[in-house]
Amino acid sequence: MTLAEIGSAARMALATIREHKLRSLLTVLGVIIGTGTVIAVGSIITGVDAAVTNIARSFGPNTAFVFKFNIGFRGNITREELARKPLTWENAQAIRERCPSVAHVAPWLFSPNAFQRRGGIDRARYKADDMYLIEFAGTEESYAAGGTERMKFGRFFTESENRRRAPVIVIGEDVQKAWFPHVDPVGKWIEVNGRMFEIVGVMARPSFSFPGQEDKRFLVPYFTMRKLFPHAREHMLVVVAHDGKLAQALDEVRMVLRQERRIPYNKPDDFWISTGEQMLEDFHRITAMVAIVMVVLSSIGLLVGGIGVMNIMLVSVTERTREIGIRKAVGARRSDIVAQFLTEAVVLTALGGLLGMAFGWMISVAARTVFPTLPTAVPLWTVILGSAVSVAVGLFFGVWPATKAARLDPVVALRYE
Fold first, then answer.
1. Backbone angles phi, psi at 68, to 5 degrees
2. How far, in Å, are 59, 88, 145, 245 from residue 274 at the CA level?
3. Which of 179-188, 355-364, 398-407 shows the lowest mean pLDDT across its residues?
4. Which among 266, 166, 316, 276 is positioned nearest to 226, based on CA atoms?
């Protein structure tokens, strides 16, 4: 079949679609939904992946986190992990003293409400304005010394304030914007969980954060938190290695913690230690699974669309039986009839694929508008996949109607009314 014949068949297909606009739209609705799903979910996954990648790398190439169980991208926590004894301030001190590759280590003491299933809610108040679902924790000056924090106003609390258990606090940028939008809040007093604290600084919003995530951090000196909440036990350790020595630092930290926690040599670690890059690898495994699920779900819409295309093409063969008879009578071969109807099916599904891509792109733009920190983008692979699949659907489901049309007896077809 020549290019001229293909072009002629495509023009005939477009003319048929124009004559039956609504029928054609309903026919390819499944293709539109399936292709749109591939584009939309692919762009959102790309955006989330980029956001998480930026977050993981914003921790710095030398930063690691230690907790009693995996708090990264994973499923349910086991009972054995929940039963593990928490990390301690003494563990942080041992790492500081015995790990030469570690530049800074900061204990992060969670609020006692952070891991309570019932009743525990951290609340902050300034005058009559309450704020819930805050991130309330105690840490040391070395947390800011790691270089991951930038101050917008004021300063971070000092080691002297930590030792004196001073009632000082550092807040996140979104807290400052909500309560002190046009003033420097340093020196103001606020209430957190019924205790009064003086603001000494405002941390700038992290360079990268999850879409829709607010910076509602309230950080107090470590020993201030211990004084106010002596029953708080859950710690995370933030470890910063010297440049180029992260691998050695991880080995040293693991060795020290195994000794501190009295773990037998033949038993696995009862703590979790990870870097931003390792958490990123875990997340990529999750997005790969999501992509597979996306393809499976979108294939259902494409299957429905393909059945609709086959059905409408069979109807078209019946409606154009006389036309097929005339074409055969004047010399058209079976291959010409097959090519004509296959081209029509492909044009129909290709147009559905284009509409689906436009639909998916609009969802991508809407997601980026609602969540400005979500860098959604339509990846090239989704466009190629959507185009290829929509054409393949037309070819596959158009074979039977095209073959049926090609097999019509010209004499019988000419007498068809």
1. -75, -20
2. 12, 18, 20, 15
3. 398-407
4. 166
How many angstroms from the chain centroid is the CA of residue 40? 12
Alpha helices (H) in 164-270, listed in sequence order:
173-179, 222-228, 246-260
Q: What is the DSSP string of 255-297?
A: HHHHHHTT--TTS--SSEEEEHHHHHHHHHHHHHHHHHHHHHH
Average of per-residue pLDDT values in the chain: 80
Over residues 110-150, the pLDDT tens digits come to: 988 776 655 568 889 998 888 888 889 999 888 887 666 78
**3-class DSSP state of 205:** coil
pLDDT value for 67: 87
pLDDT digits 0-9 by tens, 242-270: 888 888 888 889 998 888 888 888 888 88
CB-based burial label for 392 (10 Å; 0-12, 13-18, 19+)? middle
Instruction: Measure the CA–CA gap between 14 and 347, rounded to whole angstroms.
Output: 7
Q: What is the pLDDT of residues 152-161, one digit of tens each?
A: 898 999 899 9
> Rounded to an integer, what distance in angstroms lies between the CA atom of residue 8 and that of residue 2?
10
Q: How far apart are CA 149 and CA 120, in angstroms?
A: 28
Is 68 or 56 the better-scoring residue by pLDDT? 68
Distance CA 206, CA 375 (A): 16
Interval 350-377 mean pLDDT? 80
- Nearest of 55, 69, 30 to residue 303 by alpha carbon: 30
Burial of 140 (0-12, 13-18, 19+ CB in 10 A): buried
Beta bridge partners of 41: none
Half-sphere exposure in the Cβ direction for 146 (13 Å, CA): 24
How many DSSP H helices and E strands does the chain contain? Answer: 15, 12
Lookup: tokens for 141: 């000056």
Q: In whole angstroms, what is the distance from residue 380 CA to residue 94 CA? A: 50
Give whole-number Cα distances, 339 to 320, 342, 396, 404, 407, in Å. Answer: 15, 5, 13, 12, 13
Say what the pTM is. Answer: 0.64
pLDDT attached to residue 344: 80
Domain ranges within the chain, ordered by starting residue: 3-55+282-414, 85-270
Residue 148: partners with Cβ closer than 8 Å, 6 or more residues away = 58, 59, 60, 63
The three-class DSSP label of residue 187 is coil
Token pair of 76 as six digits: 């349910």
